[in-house]
Amino acid sequence: MVPLFVGYALIVWYLAGRHRRRLPGIVAVALGLLGLIAINWFHIQVGHWTRGEIYVPVLQSITYPYTVLVAVVGVFIWSIPRDLGERCGRCGYSLEGLEPSGSSVVCPECGVKHATRAAYRRSGADRRDLSGDDDRGNTHERFAGRSASEQAPHPAHGEDRERQAPDERPAEHAQAAG
Length: 178
Fold this sequence. Notes:
Layout (H helix, E strand, L loop, with lengths): L1 H17 L4 H27 L6 H24 L24 E3 L6 E3 L23 H4 L5 H4 L19 H7 L1
Antiparallel strand pairs: 1-2
Helix pairs in contact: 1-2, 1-3, 2-3
């Protein structure tokens, strides 16, 4: 009897994992749940049919938590994100993190060349990959909620109002210290 319980759960969870984030995966979990609800209903009917000769609450104390366990773990497995990273079309090798040579990435497993995607940046400059950030900091966070005139660099970038470099002491403090 135990292999049936374990096998049923493993089948439902395998199908949920195999078809993560797709309709067949959630359908497998729903059908698995409906099957267990049908078994629970059958246990209740057995109690009525035998007029209490089979003690149904013992069966229910096992099957109800099992039903919840199979459904909750199935939904959890189904909700795990799929690996959407770039893969080689021929052998399936992950191309994530490989440095492009020119306008293509060469698969280290089978040697097939794959065209790279151009990384978009507001500045129009090229970026090596989409996952990293450029050297100037995140422009989306820096300029969020500011107008276009506020986003333009100040002509005296790196100097304060009195044309002093950032590492110099301000004029008013220089006089008081001297």
